[in-house]
DNA sequence: TTGTATGCGTTATCAC
DNA sequence: GTGATAACGCATACAA
């Protein structure tokens, strides 16, 4: 069935035989077991034999007896995200770097692709293939499985799923709603009143609704509504952002500013704007979200909210490593704030800055499209 | 040492006991062993017991006896690439999708980060943690280890390392030299004579030198030299592309066109150009390489060479799966051609198209900077 | 048709 | 100080 690879397969018995000792001694020496009183001479002989034979312990055998695999998995939604967006890749880099530094391998596991109805990552846990799990932006359907794992004490760190209410899940989130308020307020404070919003995905994701809420919050602070025709939804990619923006323009919209749910769709939206003969920021001001590496090099450089996925992934992984080591920090949840990075996609203030809720309607707004 | 996770740990013995049969029977039923004549009734009882207990076979035990792990690793250089560029992420998506479709988990393993002097991935093989390996753009120092694995018959597919001369290594490459010729020729055919080249990394990578050679080939076809001051080197990121371009501009260069080693640094270079008051394509024409998802949404949309990392990764993974199944296709190497995607970053022809080697020097070239 | 016995390569508990 | 021996959980040749 499974063809045995031809790679050398050296066992500890062979090392023992060559060194003239028992397998136990080999194990003691190789694992540096203290207080076993191994003579320096035997030690050297064993080490030499192991080196000479190129001995590497069999991982399966080792984990069968130890119960640990020195492997973790990073669970994400579609692998599609890897193709079109820069968020998950940076997250993966952080998880990888941190986990590797602690001697863990990392399995990359997108779950929706499996076609399961949720909990597609459970089998990895139950079959004991991994010692811990980091779940990134998993859809709501998996919340219940995440909760089960956590309640069983399995090392798990959840990122971006807003499971704050759960008292046994370790989680890290950014305050997306507040971040969206900040982003939208930035446009409002510049004098814009007709601000459009472009969601980056369907509302199956926690992040999408959170950002929409934040946008609405800020609009309300300025006594502004969020009209349907100024709200659009894309689907992760720049292409979808471009399509969504074209649709909004076709709907005969009137807006002078755009808050895009992420930078990638902001790129797409800006391209659509350009194609329609609209200039950024002169005609339309744009704020993105994420601060992907290319945001600073867009034309014009994109003003955006700086989520720091690499750093956040490092933090999540550090926590996971501690959980796998048996620690149980008292702090369950951490909520991070993200800064606004002002570049040039919003231009200069349209009118003198108008404080929220005291401005007289859209008086300070630009004339815009309509 | 290693704290046993509290997750349920059901063994086949427990299933056997609940079903009132032996462990062997459980194994036969669960693995669908044919010609064993298991009665339909027992079968149902076993399946029911397994489901009731939530039984999942222990992966370590299974792989210890079977010799297989149902896991592959994708070996890449720095994890840094995940942070700043879009090539490796798309590659990973392809490997992931294909391998998952065949029931394999995938370990993401950047090797240079380990600080080893090469062969950092060998231990995964020797410890039998993986059944196969895909090596992407590994540096030259690892060639020897790759060759060793291949000669031992270990399932291995190498991508982008140009190891064509090896008669036992399965490899997939794109003809980067030819691609670079095509890219450079495109600029030359548009009438440009002063064409600059920006490498995307140090020449530790096969791809960097290949692309430089291709650029020189094309220049030579037009009887043009490749002056040192028109050659720059970046380091993967858009930021480095921006820095490198600024340095080239500082050196008081004279060029009317740029061939950038990848799209990411092209973004950076274009930003530097813009900052210097130069317009693309009016003052400088730009061709990139890779066709990353954002290339089409750059301002102006970037003309580039379309490498298709996702598709290439799928092909490499398909091959790996076949190797792991024991197949040994006769075709060892495959070399792919990549198409030029013309968008708007090169504008229109500068003069009427001039055939190679017959043009009178730089007569058709634009005046440019100097 | 089902159960018994053995081995996979380690680690760990004991006597010696 | 060192060396047998028993798990770990599963698969399978073989016996019943």
Short characterization:
Two copies of one chain form a homodimer. Helix content of chain A is 39%, strand content 14%.
Core attributes:
370 residues; six-stranded parallel β-sheet; DNA-binding; homodimer; 13 helices; 434 Repressor (Amino-terminal Domain); Rossmann fold; six-stranded mixed β-sheet; elongated; 14% strand
Can you walk me through this structure?
Two copies of one chain form a homodimer. The first copy, chain A, has helices spanning 12-19, 23-30, 40-53, 59-66, 80-84, 87-101, 122-126, 143-151, 176-189, 206-221, 238-250, 263-275, 309-324, and strands spanning 71-76, 105-110, 132-136, 156-159, 170-174, 195-199, 231-233, 257-260, 285-289, 303-305, 333-336, 340-341. Helices cover 39% and strands 14% of the residues of chain A. By secondary structure, the first copy, chain A, is α/β, with parallel strands linked by helices. A six-stranded parallel sheet of chain A has the order 2-1-3-4-5-11, sandwiched between helices. The first copy, chain A, has a six-stranded mixed sheet with strand order 7-6-8-9-10-12, sandwiched between helices. At the A-B interface, helix 4, helix 5, helix 6, strand 2 and helix 7 of A face helix 4, helix 5, helix 6, strand 2 and helix 7 of B. Chain A binds a DNA duplex (16 and 16 nucleotides) through helix 2 and helix 4. Chains A, B: This is LacI family transcriptional regulator. Chains A, B: Keywords: DNA-binding, Plasmid, Transcription, Transcription regulation. Chains A, B: Residues 10-66 form the HTH lacI-type domain. Chains A, B: One of its GO terms (molecular function) is transcription cis-regulatory region binding.
């Amino acid at each position: 069935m499974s063809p045995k690879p031809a790679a050398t397969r050296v066992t500890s018995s062979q090392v023992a035989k060559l060194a003239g000792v028992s397998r136990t001694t080999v194990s003691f020496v190789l694992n540096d077991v203290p207080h076993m009183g191994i003579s320096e001479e035997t030690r050297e002989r064993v080490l030499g034999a192991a080196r000479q034979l190129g001995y590497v312990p069999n991982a399966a055998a080792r984990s069968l007896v130890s119960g640990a695999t020195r492997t973790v998995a990073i669970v994400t939604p579609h692998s599609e995200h890897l193709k079109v967006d820069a968020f998950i890749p940076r997250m993966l880099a952080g998880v990888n770097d941190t986990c590797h530094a602690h001697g863990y391998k990392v399995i990359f596991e997108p779950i929706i692709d499996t076609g399961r109805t949720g909990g597609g990552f459970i089998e990895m846990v139950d079959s004991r293939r991994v010692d811990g799990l980091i779940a990134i932006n998993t859809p709501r359907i998996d919340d219940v499985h995440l909760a089960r794992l956590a309640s069983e004490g399995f090392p798990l760190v959840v990122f971006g799923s807003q499971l704050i209410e759960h008292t046994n899940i370790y989680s890290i989130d950014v305050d997306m709603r507040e971040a969206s308020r900040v982003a939208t307020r930035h446009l409002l404070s510049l004098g814009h009143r007709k601000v459009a919003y472009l969601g980056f995905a369907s509302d199956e994701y926690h992040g999408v609704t959170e950002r929409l809420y934040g946008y609405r919050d800020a609009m309300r602070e300025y006594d502004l509504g969020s009209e349907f025709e100024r709200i659009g939804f894309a689907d992760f990619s720049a292409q979808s952002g471009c399509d969504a923006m074209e649709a909004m323009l076709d709907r005969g919209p009137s807006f002078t500013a755009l808050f895009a749910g992420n930078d990638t769709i902001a790129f797409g939206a800006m391209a659509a704007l350009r194609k329609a003969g609209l200039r950024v920021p002169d005609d339309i001001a744009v704020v993105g979200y994420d601060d992907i590496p290319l945001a600073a090099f867009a034309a014009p450089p994109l003003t955006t909210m700086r989520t720091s996925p690499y750093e956040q992934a490092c933090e999540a992984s550090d926590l996971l490593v501690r959980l796998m080591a048996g620690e149980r920090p008292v702090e369950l949840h951490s909520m991070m704030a993200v800064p606004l990075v002002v570049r040039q996609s919003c231009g200069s203030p349209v009118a003198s800055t108008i404080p929220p809720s005291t401005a007289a309607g859209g008086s300070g707004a630009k004339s815009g499209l309509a």
